[in-house]
Amino acid sequence: QSPHSIQVSGRQNPWFESIGVGDDGFLRWKGHRLGLKAVEIACLLEMKMPRAWLKQVFQQGPTKQHDMRIAVADKTRRIDILIARYSDSQDWFWKATVNWDLYWGLRQESLNFRLMKEAGLEFSSENYPELSWRMLKREE
Question: Dihedrals φ, ψ of 99, to 5°?
Answer without folding.
Answer: -115, 140
